[in-house]
Amino acid sequence: MPDNDLHDLTELAANSTLSADGRLPLIGLDKSELAALAVGIGEKPYRGTQLFHWIYSRGARNFEDMTDISKECRAQLAEKFTLERPVIDQEQVSEDGTRKWLHAFSDGQKAEAVLIPEDDRGTLCVSSQVGCTLTCRFCHTGTQRLVRNLTPGEIVAQVMVARDALGEWPTPKDGSRALTNIVLMGMGEPLYNFEAVKKAMQIVMASDGISISRHRITLSTSGVVPEIERCGEELRVKLAISLHGATDEIRSKIMPINKKYPLRELMEACRTYPGVSNARRITFEYVMLKDINDSEADARALVDLVKDVHCKFNLIPFNPWPGTPYECSSRKTIERFQDILASASITCPIRTPRGRDILAACGQLKTDSEKLSAKERRVQAEQAWADKEARVAL
Ligand code: SAH
Ligand code: SF4
Fold it and tell me: Which of 112, 154, 168, 189 is catalytic?
C-alpha cells in the first residue's frame, strides 16, 4: 500500500470511533474518503462511488450484498470496515405515532432522534451534540452537561436508522417517501458543531445517496451569530432561529447566549442570510411561556423587531419536563398573541405538540435521566445550570 494512502486511512481512523472489534465504520464517510479508502486496500478509486451508492442509496448492512464488487474485495472490506449502525438503546412510539430512538454510540454516549409523521410529510428531528453547552432556561437538554459533539457518522446514522425502521431502502422516489424532511432541532447547538453537521448534511443531500434536498432541511440555532452566514453560504439549507424573546432584557434572562449575541446582531444576520427572500423565509421559533414572554406588549414588540426580515413564526406551546419552573401560556393567550402577529401579516401557526407522552416534543430531549422527586429535579436543574454557567465563564 503506498504511503500516502496509508496515511489517508490512518487519518480516517483517527477521526472516527472504531467499532468494538477495531473496524472502521464507513457511515459518515463521503465519496472522496471512500475512494481514498478503496485505493488504500489496493482497489481503483471508482470503488468509492460504488460503496457510496451501496451505503447511502441501497442502505446495505453487509458487504456480501454488494454484488458488483468482486468477492475478494468484499472479503477485504468486511475484514477492515463495518456498516454497523449505532445500537438502539430504546425505541418508543407515542400515541400520536411519533417515534423516538435513543442511539447508543460505540463509546457509550447517547443521543435521541425523533420521527414526526404528518399527513403530507415525515420529519426527522436530528441531534448534533450529546447534551448542549448552552443553558436556555426552558429547555430540558439545557440542563444536561455537554458530553461531546457528534461525529458526521453519528449524525448521518440517525437518518439511516429511521430509513431502516421505515424500510425505505433503496432510496424511494421523492413523492413516495415517509421520511421527507430533516430538522436539526434535536439535542445540541448545530452551529457549535458546524463542520460535522455540514459534512453529514452534504452526505444526506447527495442525489445518488439518501437524496434529501436542501429545501427540505432546516437548521435551527439559538443564535450563534458568527456562524449563521456560513450556514447559508456553505450548506444553503433553511434556517430557523430560536427567538423566544422580543427584547434583550427578556431574551437574555431565558437564553443566556443573548448576552453574547444580542438581538440587533441576530436580526442583522437574519436580514442578510444568504438566499433569504420572501419565498425562502427564516422561521422564528417562539416558545409560549406563561407570564414570561406572552403579553400583548411582547407581541407588538416582536412585530417591530422583525419588520424588515423575511420571516414566519412558529408559536410553540411550552412542553413541560421534570423539574421545570415554567408553565405553558393558556390557549387564549397564545391565540391573542397570534392575532397580533397575524394582523401585521406575519404567518404564525401554533405548533401542535407531538410526542409529549414519550418526552419527544421540542425541548424535552435529555439522555440518562434519573428518577428523582419533583423538588429534587428542580434543585438538580438549578444546580446543572449554575454548574454549566460557572464552567462556561472559566
Ligand atoms: N439548539 C438549537 C436546536 C434545538 S431546536 C436551538 O436552540 O435552536 C429545539 C427547539 O425547541 C428550539 O427552538 C428550542 O428553543 C425549543 N424548545 C426548547 N425547550 C422547549 C420546551 N420545553 N418547549 C417547547 N419548545 C422548546
Ligand atoms: Fe441548547 Fe437549543 Fe436547548 Fe438552548 S434550546 S439549551 S441551544 S438545545
Answer: 112
